[in-house]
Amino acid sequence: MTKEYGDELRKELCFLFYVTNKEIVNQFNQYLKRYDISFPNYIVLLYIDTDRPIYIKTLCEELYLDSGTISPIIKRLEKKGLINRIRTLEDERRVKIELTQDGIDLRKQFSKISEDVIQQFDMPEEDTVTYYNLLRKFTDRNIIEKYKK
To answer: What's a single GO MF annotation on this record (predicted)?
Structure first.
């Protein structure tokens, strides 16, 4: 019996993480195309509360992004009219962001995207719940706890 090319690679955890992440982000992007935003823009918009402005520093901390990554996202979202930047009176270097009305309206349209993406994958609901719980546990233990130290 001959070994199929790539069988060993397909057993590697790093490969499974890579292809899974790539496919999930691609599925999200299929939905996000209609709103003309990228996956990172989507994550930022999901985080911003509609009721109050948030500091950019807090956004970086909560999304585990550095300012060099978040700054271009903020600029693109502002250019699209989805957010406003607000310099604080106490310290002009501190910047808050808030959703504009267009941003709030767009965010409301996001309510089912995650559910729709999950439906694209041929997985029984029990497996979907298990997968979600494993991701949640991994994130809580290895990312959230790590950065709170």
So the answer is: DNA-binding transcription factor activity
Q: pTM for the full model?
A: 0.82
pLDDT in tens, 4-22: 767 787 888 889 889 999 9
Instruction: Provide the β-strand partners of residue 99.
Output: 83
pLDDT digits (tens, 9 = 90+) for 27-41: 999 999 999 999 999
Give the tokens for residue 53: 């402005």
| Cα 128 from Cα 63, distance rounded (Å) | 23
The CATH class that applies to domain 7-110 reads mainly alpha
> What is the DSSP annotation of 106-144?
HHHTTTTHHHHHHHHS---HHHHHHHHHHHHHHHIIIII
Amino acid at 96: K
Rounded to whole angstroms, the Cα distance separating 84 from 75 reads: 10
Please provide residue 98's backbone torsions phi and psi, each rounded to the nearest 5 degrees: -140, 155
Domain boundaries, the chain: 7-110
Contact between 106 and 45 (Cβ < 8 Å):
yes
β partners of residue 87: 95
CA distance 62 to 45: 13
